[in-house]
Amino acid sequence: MKHSNSVFHQLLKHLPRHQFQKAVDRHKGDHRARSLPCWTQLISLMFAQMTGRTSLRDLEENFNTKRNHHYHLGVERIKRSSLSDANNNRPSAIFMETFFYLLGKVRGELPRKVEEEMVRLIDSTTIDMNLNQFEWASFRSTKAGIKLHTVYDPDADIPTYFEMTAAKINDRKAAHKLPIIPGATYVVDRAYNDYGWYYSLTQQGTRFVGRMKSNAIYEVIENRETTASHILEDQIIRLSSVKAQKDCPTDLRRVTIVREDDGKVLSFITNDLVRTAQEIADLYKSRWQIELFFKWIKQNLKIKRFLGQSENAVKIQVLSAMIVYLLLRLTQITTHCKLSLQQIARRVGLNLTSRCSLLELFTDPPEKNKVNLHHNQGSLELVYA
After folding, report:
1. Helices (H), 12-128
2. What pLDDT is recorded for position 366?
3. Can you give the pTM of this predicted structure?
């Protein structure tokens, strides 16, 4: 029988330990670490993500029962007290650098587009938390939570950047800190409607598509002809309120459509004067891909219940979840697997320490030929003794 490393070991081939150690050394992550190096911390947190562990005690017990695999993974037994201290005190930048290293590997496996063809989706999702346990994340009188502000590549199905903040941080403020690629097109929802930001994007040659405020004041410079019945208006406009004129003194475009499935009227605002009105509407429709991504990570990764209560511990757990997501995506790409990412995550979670190849894990066995009972019965003969 051909020898195979564990499924976990095969996943980690995409993350060389020496590469991770470079980030550890830069941020002195293992400084004065006696019993729990950063590598063991990362592997145990990834184990928790993929096997569904919900507490430090649960993680300690289950991780340590797999001690036969520790040597091959390069890890040691863990103690929940040591892991708790590491999550609270180790620099989260180590895990952020690891995320971006894996992101670069994913993008290197995919066809590269020129900047003018790049589309990025920007949105945020809120994760509710217990106010009594996470007072630092308070945003209402009775609730706490964090926001994941995300830039998403719909063609590659990966987040290209994300930042975690308290839920009270406004999306428009967070948008100013997000990295912007000149020449690309960014699609946002109504929460990011900021005329000053729109103008700064226009000045650097970047296009945007967003939802227009219902109370926006503007003058129509040109009405473009529309042919499709569901496209109500295609106009070149100028914002005419005093503040808007100051923040965004440039021509923009307003496209209004009626959504065919429910009859809802939507108005978009963009600085793209070249694409057709239908292409503008299709770009905004693609924003649902980032909503599906948020739904996926909430359903398949452990970012609703946290192993620590400090802000640093929460951030490290979220980063560990995103590292797992990228490892699964890399595995999907490099094995040319036709299964969905959810199917891959489930099979990996159930067989994490099994010794079988990924190809074997992702390939369904052929169905056995069913015996034709009626045919066999017809061939029987009655014999009298």
Report:
1. 17-26, 38-51, 56-65, 70-73, 80-89, 93-108
2. 73
3. 0.87
